[in-house]
Amino acid sequence: MEWKNWQHISLKSKKHLPSYSGIYVVADKDDRVWYVGQAKNIYSRWQGKNHHRYPQLNQSHKKFNYTIYYHPFPLEKLDEKERYYINTFNPELNNTQVKQYLPRVPSPEEEIKRILKVLNKPNSLYPTVRSLILGQYRDNNNVIHVLCLINPNDYNILQNSATKKHGGLVRNAWSGLYRHSKRTIVWIDTPIYTMSGYQFEFYSGLEVINYLEIHSNKRNHYLHKGNILGIDVLMITNLKILTLSNLPLEDKLKEKLPLLENTMNNQKDSKNQSEELIKPSLPKKMTRWLVNIEDVEVEICKDEKEKYYVRHNLFWYIVFNNKNPDPIHNGIINNLQQWVNNELPTIWWVGYRFKLEELEFEDGLITEAVLLPLKMFEDLIKYFYEENSKNNRFSSYNSSKPAKSTGSLDRIYKLGKWLQNHSLEEFKK
Question: What percent of the chain has pLDDT over 90?
C-alpha cells in the first residue's frame, strides 16, 4: 500500500491541494480505494466543482469520510502511472457512469407550504402577527380561494418564488407579475398562486396587521390559530374587525368580502374554516388504456363514474406536435374554450367548463391534466381535419404514392379520415 505513505488531506480540505502534476487516490476511512486519477495541476483539478466525481463523492462523504492521497509525477509519466494504479486497485468509480445530481425542484404544493411557513414565522418587525388568513370561499368550479394578508416587506418572498431558476412548475403557478427587465420584477396585479384545487391570493394588509400587533385584546377576540395544508397559520374569526377599526383595504379585496361573509355565516363553527383546508381535494381516480388507430396511438381514460375522456396532452400532441404542453404557459383552457364555443359546428359543447384536475391512475401515476370528453375530442379532431382539407393541405395524401409522415398533419389526416366512418366509442371498456 505504497499510496498510504503519500501526502493526503480530507476531501473537504481540497483547497489545500498542491499545484504540481501527479496522481491522486481517493480512499475512504477503511482504506477502500474509490477513484484514481491524474492531473497536470492537482489543485486546479479539484477546485470548485471542476472534478466530475466531486458531487458524487460529496454526497456520501459523511458516510465514508473520504481522503485524497496525492504524489508528484512528471507529465510524461502520468498515463503510465494512472493505468498502473487503476489496474492495481480496481477502484469503485473508475469506468462507471457519472451520477448527475440536479437541483431538486419543489412541487407546487410543497412551495406554497414553504411560503405559508415563512409568512407565519415571527420576526423582529412582527413578533406576533406577521401575516393573516382573512378567509376562504369555494367558487363554482370547486376551487378554494384562500385570501392572505401580508405586509409589504414580505412581497420579496413571493417574488423570489415566482422567479426561481429551477422551478418551472412553481413559476407557472404565479400570476400578477410584470417582468420589467432581467433584474427587476414588479407586481402589477394581485399576486395569485394557483395549484390543484386551490387559489392563494395575497393582498397588502399592513394596517390590519399593525393594528392587531399593537392591540393584544383585539387579537384574542378576532384571531385564532388554524391549519392550512398542514401549516400553522393565524386566521381571522370575524370580519367585523375590518369595519370596526376602519382599516383601509384594497378595492379588489373589498369585492370579495361578501363571499367570505357568506362562507362564514354558513358554517356552524368558525373552526370549520381551517378544517376544510386541512385536506386538499383528493386526486380523481382514473383508469386508462391505449388503442392504435391507423398507426396513431390514442389514450382513453375512464373515471369512477364510467365517463370517458382524453387528456389535453394527447390532443396537443396530435394537433400541434407538442408532447408536453404546459396548461398555463400554452393557454390550454382558454384555447379549448374558444374552439368549442366559436369553431365547432355543434352547440353540444358550448358552455362546457374546462379545468385543471389532479388525476391518479391505476398504475400509481399522479399527474395534472385538462380532460376532454371522448366525443368532444372526436369533434375537435374532425374540425381540424376538415379545416386542413379546405386549405388543401392533404393533397399529397391523395396521390398514388403514399406521403411521408409530416408529424401532426399526418396524425390529423389518419385519425380524422378514420373518424369519418367510425367512432372512439367502439373502444370503450
Answer: 34
**How far is Cα of residue 297 from the mean position of the Cα atoms in its chain?**
27
> Which positions ≥6 away from 358 have C-beta within 8 Å?
196, 197, 281, 283, 284, 366, 367, 368
Taking only the tens place, the pLDDT of each residue in 339-381 is 888 888 887 887 788 888 889 998 888 888 899 999 999 999 9
**3-state SS, residue 40:** coil
Strand residue runs (E) in 141-222: 144-150, 174-179, 185-195, 198-204
Q: Residue 381 in 3-state DSSP? A: helix
Q: Where are the domains of the chain?
A: 2-89, 108-278, 284-427
**Tens digit of pLDDT for each residue in 98-107?**
765 555 667 8
Write out pLDDT tens, residues 116-151.
999 998 888 888 889 999 888 888 888 899 999 998
**0.90 exceeded by pTM:** no
d(CA 110, CA 365): 18
Whose grid coordinates read 395575497?
202
Considering only the top CATH level, what class is 2-89?
alpha beta
Residue 204 has a CB neighbour count (10 Å cut-off) of 19
